[in-house]
Design goal:
Length: 336
């Protein structure tokens, strides 16, 4: 696939007023979500839940793509139509999570590095045949005593860059996600410093590995106070610090940036995105790639009565998509 084709896919992912829904939870992670609402973690329940999400009427009005898990990209609706066909027929780009998760970083207690490069070329080619148009790899950067180390940051960013190069070779747009965790009692200034160092390392690694930025999407964490910090930064402060950090580190050639919700409440994730876009224009579109902040309310409703609440749960998904789509334009309000 040519860089022009990769670029057009990347641009479609961050089309005005549209963002990405992340439904790429591993079976272990979705078990925790299902356990919390009293749903058995069976393959059929996982399939039915994701069918509810992906067949939401009008989803494509505010959702440009969905990140899937390995099991999900191979599944079909109850009527036997592959999820990828449903998505592509409705103008929603299928994406796929391809990393194997964080593992302990040898020699650096408490720090992790994401694994999954072994065999990745073959897996990416298979996912492309299954209909994927983009992929995602998440690195995890924790803030704590003497953490993160530069070794941890650089090891994760090197892996992100190798993954991104392999994606583009396979004709997939790489979504690179270096998540600086909210966990901890650090203040927003420390989060800013760690986020800046991480993004500098990331783009240096992408350059070294020959990754074409025009065909790449950044999935970024916002610059936030740690969730246990006594003094929580307000919405405007978070928006200002995040924009300042991105403008300092992210090249303008990048087609767009989508944010993860990272444990924020549904409304707070939307409010922060909206505030950032009201401070625009920016060098790149700023949109969303939310998981829990898109799904949580719908999951609780669906879990109470899977058949009876199917349509109501879909309405909840559509409403969350609309609110975040408006925030991606800087047009959201709490009354929207």
């Amino acid at each position: 696939m040519s860089i022009e084709q990769l670029e057009s896919i990347a641009q479609a992912m961050v089309a005005p007023g549209k963002g990405i829904i992340a439904i790429d939870e591993s079976n272990n992670t979705i078990k925790k979500r299902f356990d919390a609402v009293g749903v058995e973690n069976s393959e059929e329940h996982r399939r039915a839940y994701r069918e509810m999400l992906l067949t939401t009427p009008g989803l494509n009005e505010h959702i440009s793509g969905a990140i899937l898990y390995d099991e999900t990209i191979r599944q079909s609706t109850k009527a036997g139509v592959p999820f990828t066909k449903i998505m592509l027929d409705n103008g929603i780009l299928p994406g796929i999570k391809v990393d194997k998760g964080p593992h302990p970083l040898a020699g650096f207690p408490g720090e992790v590095v994401t694994e999954g490069l072994d065999g990745l070329r073959e897996r990416l080619n298979e996912y492309a045949r299954l209909g994927a148009r983009f992929a995602k790899w998440r690195a995890v950067i924790a803030i704590g005593e003497d953490m993160p180390s530069s070794t941890c940051i650089d090891a994760n960013c090197h892996a992100l860059a190798r993954y991104a190069a392999l994606c583009q070779e396979a004709g997939l747009v790489p979504m690179v996600e270096p998540e600086v965790l909210m966990d901890g009692d650090h203040d927003i200034d420390l989060c800013y410093d760690v986020t800046e160092a991480t993004l500098r390392s990331l783009f240096a690694s992408l350059y070294e590995q020959g990754v074409m930025l025009e065909g790449t999407i950044l999935k970024a964490s916002m610059v936030l106070s740690g969730k246990d910090c006594a003094e929580q930064a307000d919405i405007e402060e978070v928006a200002e610090a995040t924009i300042r950090c991105l403008k300092t580190t992210v090249p303008a050639a990048l087609p767009g940036i989508v944010f993860l919700s990272g444990g924020q409440s549904d409304e707070m994730a939307t409010a922060h995105l909206n505030a950032m876009n009201q401070m625009g224009p920016h060098p790149w579109p700023l949109s969303f790639s939310y998981g829990r902040a898109m799904q949580q309310a719908a999951l609780k409703l669906w879990a109470k009565d899977m058949a009876g609440n199917f349509a109501a749960a879909q309405n909840t998904v559509a409403q969350r998509a609309k609110e975040n789509g408006l925030a991606a334009l800087g047009q959201w309000s709490r009354a929207a």
